[in-house]
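Minutes, project check-in
Item: structure for the 210-residue chain
Input as provided by the requester:
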Amino acid sequence: MKATALTVYAALGALAGVSAHATDLGTLGPTYDIVEPHLLQMIEQRLREKEHSGELARIEQEARQRGAEAVRHPLALANVQTTQFPRTFFYDPTHTLERNILGTQGELLFAAGTKANPLDVVSLSRHLLFFDARDPRQVRQARELMAHYQSKVKPILTAGSYLDLMKSWRIPVYYDQQGMLTRRLGITQVPALVSQEGRRLRIDEMEVPR
Protein backbone atom coordinates (compact mmCIF):
# COMPACT_ATOMS: atom_id res chain seq x y z
CA MET A 1 0.00 0.00 0.00
CA LYS A 2 2.87 2.39 0.92
CA ALA A 3 4.59 1.73 -2.40
CA THR A 4 1.42 2.43 -4.30
CA ALA A 5 0.81 5.69 -2.45
CA LEU A 6 4.38 6.81 -3.04
CA THR A 7 4.05 6.05 -6.73
CA VAL A 8 0.87 8.13 -7.03
CA TYR A 9 2.40 11.03 -5.13
CA ALA A 10 5.49 10.87 -7.31
CA ALA A 11 3.42 10.99 -10.50
CA LEU A 12 1.38 13.92 -9.25
CA GLY A 13 4.55 15.68 -8.23
CA ALA A 14 6.03 15.15 -11.65
CA LEU A 15 2.92 16.58 -13.31
CA ALA A 16 2.97 19.54 -10.96
CA GLY A 17 6.57 20.11 -11.85
CA VAL A 18 5.79 20.06 -15.56
CA SER A 19 2.94 22.52 -15.04
CA ALA A 20 5.10 24.79 -12.98
CA HIS A 21 7.75 24.92 -15.69
CA ALA A 22 5.41 25.11 -18.73
CA THR A 23 6.32 27.76 -21.29
CA ASP A 24 3.98 30.77 -21.70
CA LEU A 25 3.33 31.02 -25.45
CA GLY A 26 1.59 34.36 -25.12
CA THR A 27 -1.64 35.50 -26.82
CA LEU A 28 -1.99 35.11 -30.55
CA GLY A 29 -4.70 37.79 -30.85
CA PRO A 30 -7.25 39.78 -28.90
CA THR A 31 -9.89 37.73 -27.10
CA TYR A 32 -13.47 38.69 -26.34
CA ASP A 33 -16.22 37.27 -24.24
CA ILE A 34 -19.07 35.61 -26.21
CA VAL A 35 -21.87 38.12 -25.89
CA GLU A 36 -23.87 37.55 -29.14
CA PRO A 37 -27.03 35.47 -28.62
CA HIS A 38 -27.64 32.36 -30.65
CA LEU A 39 -29.05 33.18 -34.12
CA LEU A 40 -32.24 31.16 -33.61
CA GLN A 41 -32.82 32.76 -30.23
CA MET A 42 -32.44 36.19 -31.80
CA ILE A 43 -34.94 35.33 -34.55
CA GLU A 44 -37.43 33.97 -32.01
CA GLN A 45 -37.06 37.11 -29.92
CA ARG A 46 -37.66 39.33 -32.99
CA LEU A 47 -40.76 37.33 -33.90
CA ARG A 48 -42.13 37.60 -30.37
CA GLU A 49 -41.58 41.35 -30.44
CA LYS A 50 -43.36 41.69 -33.81
CA GLU A 51 -46.20 39.50 -32.56
CA HIS A 52 -46.70 41.61 -29.44
CA SER A 53 -46.61 44.84 -31.44
CA GLY A 54 -49.10 43.56 -34.02
CA GLU A 55 -46.60 43.95 -36.85
CA LEU A 56 -46.51 40.19 -37.50
CA ALA A 57 -50.29 40.09 -38.04
CA ARG A 58 -49.99 43.04 -40.46
CA ILE A 59 -47.24 41.28 -42.44
CA GLU A 60 -49.34 38.09 -42.65
CA GLN A 61 -52.38 40.06 -43.83
CA GLU A 62 -50.35 41.82 -46.53
CA ALA A 63 -48.95 38.47 -47.70
CA ARG A 64 -52.48 37.04 -47.99
CA GLN A 65 -53.61 40.09 -49.93
CA ARG A 66 -50.67 39.80 -52.33
CA GLY A 67 -51.42 36.11 -52.86
CA ALA A 68 -55.11 36.78 -53.54
CA GLU A 69 -54.23 39.59 -55.95
CA ALA A 70 -51.81 37.31 -57.82
CA VAL A 71 -54.63 34.76 -58.24
CA ARG A 72 -57.18 37.35 -59.38
CA HIS A 73 -54.78 39.19 -61.68
CA PRO A 74 -51.88 36.96 -62.82
CA LEU A 75 -48.92 38.62 -64.47
CA ALA A 76 -49.41 39.22 -68.18
CA LEU A 77 -47.30 36.97 -70.40
CA ALA A 78 -44.20 38.84 -71.49
CA ASN A 79 -43.77 36.87 -74.73
CA VAL A 80 -47.22 37.75 -76.14
CA GLN A 81 -48.51 41.03 -77.58
CA THR A 82 -51.60 42.28 -79.39
CA THR A 83 -51.59 41.25 -83.05
CA GLN A 84 -49.75 43.70 -85.28
CA PHE A 85 -49.37 41.51 -88.38
CA PRO A 86 -52.00 38.73 -88.68
CA ARG A 87 -50.56 35.37 -89.69
CA THR A 88 -51.52 31.71 -90.03
CA PHE A 89 -49.13 28.85 -89.33
CA PHE A 90 -49.23 25.19 -88.34
CA TYR A 91 -47.92 23.17 -85.41
CA ASP A 92 -47.06 19.49 -85.74
CA PRO A 93 -47.40 17.81 -82.32
CA THR A 94 -45.53 14.67 -83.46
CA HIS A 95 -43.14 13.60 -80.70
CA THR A 96 -40.13 11.27 -80.93
CA LEU A 97 -39.66 9.03 -77.90
CA GLU A 98 -36.28 9.41 -76.26
CA ARG A 99 -36.48 6.15 -74.30
CA ASN A 100 -38.33 2.84 -74.33
CA ILE A 101 -41.84 2.78 -72.90
CA LEU A 102 -42.46 -0.39 -70.91
CA GLY A 103 -45.66 -2.00 -69.71
CA THR A 104 -46.53 -3.08 -66.17
CA GLN A 105 -44.85 -6.46 -66.74
CA GLY A 106 -41.74 -4.90 -68.23
CA GLU A 107 -42.79 -5.63 -71.80
CA LEU A 108 -41.79 -3.18 -74.51
CA LEU A 109 -44.72 -1.05 -75.63
CA PHE A 110 -42.93 1.61 -77.66
CA ALA A 111 -39.25 1.60 -78.57
CA ALA A 112 -37.04 4.67 -78.33
CA GLY A 113 -37.10 6.57 -81.60
CA THR A 114 -40.77 5.85 -82.22
CA LYS A 115 -42.68 8.86 -83.52
CA ALA A 116 -46.15 9.46 -82.09
CA ASN A 117 -48.78 12.08 -82.82
CA PRO A 118 -51.36 12.55 -80.04
CA LEU A 119 -53.90 13.67 -82.66
CA ASP A 120 -53.91 10.08 -83.94
CA VAL A 121 -55.37 9.04 -80.58
CA VAL A 122 -57.50 11.97 -79.48
CA SER A 123 -58.95 14.89 -81.41
CA LEU A 124 -59.08 18.52 -80.37
CA SER A 125 -62.73 18.65 -79.37
CA ARG A 126 -62.81 22.43 -78.98
CA HIS A 127 -60.99 25.38 -80.46
CA LEU A 128 -58.44 27.05 -78.20
CA LEU A 129 -58.79 30.81 -78.08
CA PHE A 130 -55.95 32.83 -76.55
CA PHE A 131 -56.66 36.49 -75.81
CA ASP A 132 -55.91 39.43 -73.52
CA ALA A 133 -58.88 40.08 -71.23
CA ARG A 134 -57.61 43.59 -70.44
CA ASP A 135 -58.56 44.59 -73.99
CA PRO A 136 -62.37 45.08 -74.32
CA ARG A 137 -62.09 44.56 -78.10
CA GLN A 138 -60.58 41.12 -77.64
CA VAL A 139 -63.19 40.22 -75.03
CA ARG A 140 -66.01 41.16 -77.44
CA GLN A 141 -64.33 39.24 -80.25
CA ALA A 142 -63.99 36.20 -78.00
CA ARG A 143 -67.73 36.26 -77.25
CA GLU A 144 -68.52 36.48 -80.96
CA LEU A 145 -66.25 33.54 -81.79
CA MET A 146 -67.77 31.46 -79.00
CA ALA A 147 -71.23 32.16 -80.40
CA HIS A 148 -70.07 31.38 -83.95
CA TYR A 149 -68.60 28.02 -82.93
CA GLN A 150 -71.59 27.26 -80.67
CA SER A 151 -69.53 27.43 -77.49
CA LYS A 152 -67.05 24.82 -78.75
CA VAL A 153 -64.26 27.17 -77.73
CA LYS A 154 -61.98 27.00 -74.69
CA PRO A 155 -61.08 30.59 -73.65
CA ILE A 156 -57.50 30.89 -72.41
CA LEU A 157 -56.16 34.22 -71.15
CA THR A 158 -52.67 35.59 -71.63
CA ALA A 159 -53.45 38.61 -69.43
CA GLY A 160 -56.31 39.91 -67.32
CA SER A 161 -58.51 38.40 -64.62
CA TYR A 162 -59.93 35.00 -65.48
CA LEU A 163 -61.94 35.01 -62.22
CA ASP A 164 -63.76 38.22 -63.15
CA LEU A 165 -64.48 36.83 -66.62
CA MET A 166 -65.80 33.56 -65.20
CA LYS A 167 -68.19 35.48 -62.96
CA SER A 168 -69.37 37.53 -65.91
CA TRP A 169 -69.66 34.72 -68.46
CA ARG A 170 -70.58 31.93 -66.02
CA ILE A 171 -68.35 29.45 -67.85
CA PRO A 172 -64.84 28.10 -67.14
CA VAL A 173 -62.07 30.45 -68.24
CA TYR A 174 -58.45 29.31 -68.22
CA TYR A 175 -55.08 31.03 -67.94
CA ASP A 176 -51.89 30.08 -69.75
CA GLN A 177 -49.78 29.61 -66.64
CA GLN A 178 -46.19 30.78 -67.20
CA GLY A 179 -46.89 30.88 -70.95
CA MET A 180 -46.36 27.13 -71.34
CA LEU A 181 -48.95 26.68 -74.13
CA THR A 182 -48.17 29.83 -76.10
CA ARG A 183 -44.45 29.02 -76.08
CA ARG A 184 -45.00 25.43 -77.18
CA LEU A 185 -47.39 26.43 -79.97
CA GLY A 186 -45.24 29.38 -81.04
CA ILE A 187 -47.96 31.97 -80.38
CA THR A 188 -46.59 35.49 -80.01
CA GLN A 189 -49.69 37.53 -80.87
CA VAL A 190 -53.27 37.48 -79.59
CA PRO A 191 -56.08 36.95 -80.18
CA ALA A 192 -55.05 33.55 -81.55
CA LEU A 193 -57.39 30.71 -82.49
CA VAL A 194 -56.09 27.12 -82.50
CA SER A 195 -57.96 24.52 -84.58
CA GLN A 196 -57.22 20.97 -85.72
CA GLU A 197 -56.59 20.27 -89.38
CA GLY A 198 -55.80 16.62 -89.91
CA ARG A 199 -52.69 15.67 -87.95
CA ARG A 200 -51.65 19.28 -87.38
CA LEU A 201 -52.89 22.28 -85.42
CA ARG A 202 -53.71 25.43 -87.34
CA ILE A 203 -52.97 28.67 -85.50
CA ASP A 204 -54.53 31.96 -86.63
CA GLU A 205 -53.15 35.08 -84.98
CA MET A 206 -56.07 37.35 -85.79
CA GLU A 207 -56.41 41.07 -86.24
CA VAL A 208 -58.18 42.87 -83.42
CA PRO A 209 -61.42 44.54 -84.61
CA ARG A 210 -61.62 48.28 -84.04
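Outcome recorded: The CA atoms of residues 106 and 125 lie 33 Å apart.
No further action items on this chain.
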